[in-house]
DNA sequence: GGCAGATTCTTCGTATGCAAAGCAAATTGA
DNA sequence: TCAATTTGCTTTGCATACGAAGAATCTGCC
């Protein structure tokens, strides 16, 4: 372990790195907006809407880790551009079911990644174990900071080399009901 | 390396982890605001103002990795509460020199860390090499995403309260590979 | 001196992002 | 059955965040 003075150093460095990362994400979001007309959160939301066929707004919010209020604003902008459609739920008329329009899917097909190309290229040049280590560390930090928010979902564990990593064991494949976020 | 389909998975997991991290930071910022009256960016700014004795607004913005426009808003709120004071530069009357008031220093002395206590406790329980690995990975990711912004310098060492307004790239150059493991 | 260009900060417009309050629909309980 | 609660979304208020444009100032060149 480190002494208290070193801990202060460590804290500051972590804070600085996180701030740098957040800024980079924000800047890339604005660049996305210029290039394809969608900001980062909008693109992430549209992708998730398209992946699942028809989702409630709250489920959507949880999937992309946003509050419901923020999701409302994003959906408003997406809807205003005709990229998604809002429908009232049949059985439960409180819920709003969101679905991607044809235009939305078309835009999505042309949209770039949520990560900068530069970053992806650099990442691709790394060895697989390095990629997984970085992901694991990122997830670990997220979990450590997220913990107070009660997320029981286990995340990526870097397995010894014999595990067949066809699919990384984090988010389950689409199954629309079991959201992995069931804390009520 | 991983195949293209796994890369897509990797991208998505990284995006999700980053989003989770950003949300956690935001939530902690709001908690800070309730507890000590200062949000995360405000506290970070006030700390930096106090550390250096008197800084220009632009230097401050670069130090905490914010744009000048954002810094203006934060300084407005800090000034309105009497925590910092703005003064015109003597030689260069374009610059705004920011300094912490007595009240600002008093508030600062009582303010908690920018990181959640939960996170810090968890971090402290880890071995030193693990702490450094996590920091190094975080800095590496930040650098990889930051690179396009020409910043390129992962500042491992917290700069001394130099007060001399340094020019552009500013941050002490550190070879990007071993940045986390340089003790001095 | 005097003016063109650069630099510094502020203002404006837009998009996140959250909590809390508000509203409507569904569920529960007596 | 119908009031009380819960649930799902929207609205409101505030604080980031950014770029672009504007105002004030400085610098260099003549």
Secondary-structure blueprint:
2 copies of one chain form a homodimer.
Chain A (H helix, E strand, L loop, with lengths): L3 H33 L3 H12 L3 E2 H7 L4 H13 L3 E5 L7 E5 L1 H9 L6 H8 L3 H19 L38
Antiparallel strand pairs in A: 1-3, 2-3
Helix pairs in contact in A: 2-4, 3-4
The structure holds a DNA duplex (30 and 30 nucleotides).
3D structure, described in words:
The structure is a homodimer of 184-residue chains. Chain A has helices spanning 4-36, 40-51, 57-63, 68-80, 102-110, 117-124, 128-146, and strands at 55-56, 84-88, 96-100. The first copy, chain A, has 184 residues and is mostly helical. Chain A folds into 2 domains: 4-114, Arc Repressor Mutant, subunit A (Orthogonal Bundle); 126-184, no CATH class. A 3-stranded antiparallel β-sheet of chain A has the order 1-3-2. In chain A, strand 2 (84-88) and strand 3 (96-100) form a beta hairpin. The longest helix of chain A is centred in the N-terminal third of the chain and has 33 residues, at 4-36. Chain A is globular and about 55 Å long. Residues 151-184 of chain A have low confidence and may be disordered. At the A-B interface, helix 1, helix 6 and helix 7 of A face helix 1, helix 6 and helix 7 of B. Chain A binds a DNA duplex (30 and 30 nucleotides) through residues 22-23, 26-27, 29-30, 33, 39-42, 56-58, 66-74, 76-77, 89, 92-96, 184.
